[in-house]
């Protein structure tokens, strides 16, 4: 925990304590489903409750990964009075609980959670106290977040460099910390920027989260409905479309919040660059191994818990879609910006 905290000068909801935080046998998670209308935290007393919070979208974007790592620290606290055999079995079950909460991102979640498990097992093998093991699991989670934010800072700078002064950016969903680091980098470069945020139904991550981060950090920000991106890009002379990614396959496909594909199509038609932030995933050579999560269809029949449709009307809610590499201008990583078709070079550069 020696590196400077990388959440400096970022918005309220991007501070580590407001993403997910373990303390005194509990994990506290800012409820992004209601923010900014309400600042409310979900308190989890068990690792299963953390997994449920991840599943139920209490947090999203980078949030579930930190929450899962903090959930592993909580699991060690839960198991503190168990026998050695029970303890090990409990930790292994916690790994299953936390890695399977969201199917589309389970491969990435597994990497983080297994890293925490390794720390825990090492502590056991060295005969450390349960209190020390819990502290080390917490430090693993904290360092994961801090290192990730450091990586996002480099990525944010690379995106900011691509923007002209007085540039206009269109976003999709909530790119988490990347949004904050892009804005922070633009400020350091003395670049004025304007953000246009697609609302991202049914959870409205764009209007509630992305727009809140931009506003909180003093940036001019405008929210548009999800059916307005093409017209907005055309009429407002958008300079860049950007999004994060839930998965980037080794052959350059981008899996992100549903709606990304159609915005990328419009951007391509209008000659507007689309920059994706993230890193390719060796566990996914192509889209054949991707499971697109389909969530509760009732959610699309409502707006903020208000029913919109007549009884008997059906809903369909795929959480993600797949954007092919030919629609992507560049994939921005902490190493370099890659053409989507060449993104596997990330592992050899």
3D architecture notes:
The structure is a single chain. With 349 residues, this protein is an alpha/beta fold. Helix content is 39%, strand content 16%. It is built from nine helices and 15 strands. The chain has helices at residues 47-55, 63-78, 84-99, 106-125, 130-162, 177-188, 205-216, 229-235, 260-270, and strands at residues 20-23, 26-30, 41-44, 167-171, 193-198, 220-224, 240-243, 247-248, 254-257, 274-277, 302-303, 306-307, 320-323, 330-332, 337-338. Strands 6-5-4-7-10-14-15 form a seven-stranded mixed sheet, with helices on both faces. Helix 7 links the parallel strand 5 and strand 6. The longest helix has 33 residues, at 130-162. The model has no long low-confidence stretch (mean pLDDT 95).
Summarize the structure.
By secondary structure, the chain is an alpha/beta fold. It is 39% helix and 16% strand.
């Amino acid at each position: 925990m020696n590196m400077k905290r990388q959440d400096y000068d970022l918005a309220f909801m991007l501070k580590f304590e407001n993403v997910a935080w373990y303390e005194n046998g509990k994990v506290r998670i800012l409820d992004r489903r209601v923010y900014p209308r309400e600042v409310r935290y979900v308190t989890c007393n068990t690792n299963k409750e953390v997994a449920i919070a991840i599943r139920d979208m209490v947090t999203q974007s980078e949030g579930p990964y930190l929450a899962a790592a903090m959930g592993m620290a909580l699991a060690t606290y839960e198991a503190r009075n168990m026998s050695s055999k029970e303890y090990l079995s409990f930790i292994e079950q916690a790994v299953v609980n936390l890695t399977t909460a969201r199917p589309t991102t389970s491969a990435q979640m597994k990497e983080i959670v297994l890293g925490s498990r390794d720390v825990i097992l090492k502590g056991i093998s060295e005969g450390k106290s349960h209190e020390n093991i819990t502290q080390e699991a917490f430090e693993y989670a904290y360092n994961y977040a801090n290192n990730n934010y450091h990586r996002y800072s480099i990525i944010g700078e690379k995106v900011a460099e691509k923007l002209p002064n007085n540039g206009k950016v269109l976003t999709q969903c909530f790119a988490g910390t990347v949004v904050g680091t892009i804005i922070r980098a633009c400020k350091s470069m003395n670049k004025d920027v304007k953000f246009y945020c697609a609302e991202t139904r049914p959870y409205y991550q764009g209007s509630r989260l992305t727009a809140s981060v931009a506003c909180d950090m003093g940036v001019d920000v405008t929210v548009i409905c999800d059916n307005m991106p093409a017209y907005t890009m055309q009429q407002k002379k958008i300079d860049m479309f950007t999004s994060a990614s839930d998965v980037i396959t080794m052959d350059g496909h981008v899996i992100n919040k549903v709606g990304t594909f159609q915005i990328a199509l419009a951007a391509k038609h209008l000659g507007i660059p689309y920059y994706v932030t993230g890193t390719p995933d060796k566990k996914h050579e192509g889209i054949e191994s991707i499971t697109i999560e389909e969530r509760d269809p009732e959610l699309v029949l409502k707006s903020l818990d208000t029913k919109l449709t007549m009884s008997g009307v059906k809903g369909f809610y795929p959480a993600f879609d797949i954007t092919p590499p030919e629609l992507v201008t560049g994939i921005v990583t902490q190493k370099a910006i890659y053409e989507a078709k060449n993104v596997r070079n990330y592992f050899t550069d």
